[in-house]
Amino acid sequence: MSDRPNPRAAARAVDALRRGWPIAIDGLTLLAVETADADRLATFDPPATGGVLISSGRAVTLKLANQLEAADPTAPVLV
Known about the structure:
The chain has 4 helices and 4 strands. By secondary structure, the chain is an alpha+beta fold. The protein has 2 domains: about 1-50, no CATH class; about 50-79, no CATH class. A hairpin with a 2-residue loop joins β1 and β2. It is globular, with a radius of gyration of 14 Å.
């Protein structure tokens, strides 16, 4: 497997997330919560215990960033 970035794979992943489809990257399964409905969320995470990773900008807007995470405006925030 190559360590070089694959622009087509990245574009396909972004497209899938925008459509509300889950993607897998290095053992993590990800789903864009903004595009997922209740049924898809229930299928994706039946026990509803998964974390939510949001951009730093969204965290600041929602007042969810703690002081340490907010200190780096480019870092995502795990909620």
